[in-house]
Design goal:
It comes from Algoriphagus namhaensis. Pfam families: GARS_A (PF01071), GARS_C (PF02843), GARS_N (PF02844). Among the domains are: about 1-95, 3-Layer(aba) Sandwich (Rossmann fold); about 125-190, ATP-grasp fold, A domain (Dna Ligase, domain 1). The strands form 5 sheets. Strands 12, 13, 16, 17, 20 and 21 form a 6-stranded antiparallel sheet that branches. A 5-stranded parallel sheet has the order 3-2-1-4-5, with helices on one face. A 4-stranded antiparallel sheet has the order 6-9-7-8, sandwiched between helices. The protein is globular. The protein is an alpha+beta fold. The chain has 13 helices and 21 strands.
């Protein structure tokens, strides 16, 4: 098969790494890719939202399967565009329709979907700028802390947890009136704060059948002890001790099944990945949010644990034959530590040469914000630069294997969190 993979982050390098292991993979193209994907596939310099150029490439390169990594082209309707184009309508794509992608593209849409389908989630109300007084009055009646979410896509930064009423009111005005997150906050969802332990559950579905992939816990804040600004993710661990068999059974019955059935019942075409952000509240799952693709950096911890042919899984999703696929998962632990440019998630400098550690069998290195300069040197070109995944028979050994390799990887002003997985490690004691 000739495969086209869209995206340029650590998630896409992990996808590419897994796809090329399949004997069914003849040729893999990545648009636009990074320095890591360039080593195992052919990078093509196109925009992931240039739909006509992508369609042309599908025809010219005889692509058999399209795999969409990030959410933006999905929310903008790429899958519908390809399906409605006579030249690409027969090429299966892994990714939901534009309507399906609204589960991530609009927090209000996803909350209403959960409500209609009896999926456990936090209590909420949605407000627009002309309802600012109603929103402020609503805040006065809520218990603290309270959560404010920009309705649209805000690059993972549109969620605020407010500890005081004054902060909540000020933030609501910032979001609705001062457009703190641009058009993304033209609507704001005010939501009950859920206490518990957060985790990510990943589901592959062809719209009829589904497979639940390994779960993970990620670390979103820049500072150790989960302090500082939100980022795209600083690390992840899989599996997690608080997602035992009994809890995961509840997740399947109360969340996964009603979600997949709800999509079918409401005629929302969905062939792709569903990333369910969950809170374990005293042993019961509550949905924080849906994302319509795999998470990053969780993918870098989840995919190394999948032992069955990953391309067959993707093919099953795209072609609607997922029910025949047998998912095999390794009992090993995988822990991912993200190395970022100093200053991220605010301003940072690019172009520093990167010195990599030697390859080993206990870890895998995934590229994110990397490229090669005119001299052929590997350099940092983004905020999140590398994701290093350690593997082991225990969480402790997986963490040691990840950090051993991180410590031998260098560039100027590189930063990483040294406490990834430590909180989960304590739960094993």
């Amino acid at each position: 098969m000739n495969i086209l993979l869209l995206g340029s982050g650590g998630r896409e390098h992990a996808f590419a790494w897994k796809i090329v292991q399949s004997p069914s993979c003849e040729k893999l193209y990545v648009v636009p890719g990074n320095a890591g994907t360039a080593e195992i596939a052919e990078n093509v310099e196109l925009s992931i939202t240039d739909f006509p150029a992508i369609a042309e490439m599908i025809v010219n390169k005889s692509i058999d399967l399209v795999v969409v990594g990030p959410e933006e082209p999905l929310v903008k309707g790429l899958v519908d565009y390809l399906k409605n184009n006579p030249k690409t309508s027969h090429t299966p794509a892994v990714g939901p329709s534009q309507l399906g992608a609204t589960l991530e593209g609009s927090k209000d849409f996803s909350k209403r979907f959960m409500q209609r389908n009896g999926i456990p989630t936090a209590a909420y109300e949605t407000f627009t700028s002309d309802q600012i007084d109603l929103g402020l009055a609503y805040l006065e009646k809520q218990s603290l802390p309270i959560v404010l979410k920009a309705d649209g896509l805000a690059a993972g930064k549109g969620v605020l947890i407010c500890e005081t009423l004054a902060h909540a009111k000020e933030s609501l005005k910032d979001m609705l009136l001062d457009k703190k997150f641009g058009d993304a906050s033209s609507k704001v969802v005010i939501e009950e704060f859920l206490s518990g332990i957060e985790l990510s559950v990943f589901v592959a579905t062809d719209g009829k059948d589904y497979k639940i992939l390994p779960e993970a816990k990620d670390y979103k804040r820049i500072g150790e002890g989960d302090t500082g600004l939100n980022t795209g993710g600083m690390g992840a661990v899989s599996p997690v001790i608080f997602a035992d068999e009994a809890f995961m059974k509840k997740v399947e019955e109360k969340v996964v099944k009603p979600t997949v059935e709800g999509l079918a019942k409401e005629n929302i075409p969905y062939k792709g990945f569903l990333f369910i952000g969950l809170m374990n509240t005293d042993g019961d799952p509550k949905v924080i949010e849906y994302n319509v693709r795999m998470g990053d950096p969780e993918t870098e911890a989840v995919l190394p644990r999948i032992e069955s042919d990953f391309l067959d899984l993707l093919k099953g999703i795209g072609e609607g034959s997922l029910g025949k696929y047998e998912l095999k998962v390794s009992p090993k632990f995988a822990t991912t530590v993200v190395m970022v440019s100093g200053g991220y998630p605010e301003s940072y400098q690019k172009g520093y040469p990167i010195s990599l550690s030697e390859e080993n069998t206990d870890s895998v290195l995934f590229h994110a914000g990397t490229s090669r300069n005119d001299k052929g040197e590997l350099i940092n070109t983004g905020g999140r630069v590398l994701a290093i995944t350690g593997l082991g028979d225990s969480l402790d050994s997986a963490l040691k294997n990840a950090f051993n390799r991180v410590e031998k990887t260098h560039w100027e002003k590189a930063y990483y969190r040294k406490d990834i997985g430590k909180d989960v490690l304590e739960l094993y004691k």
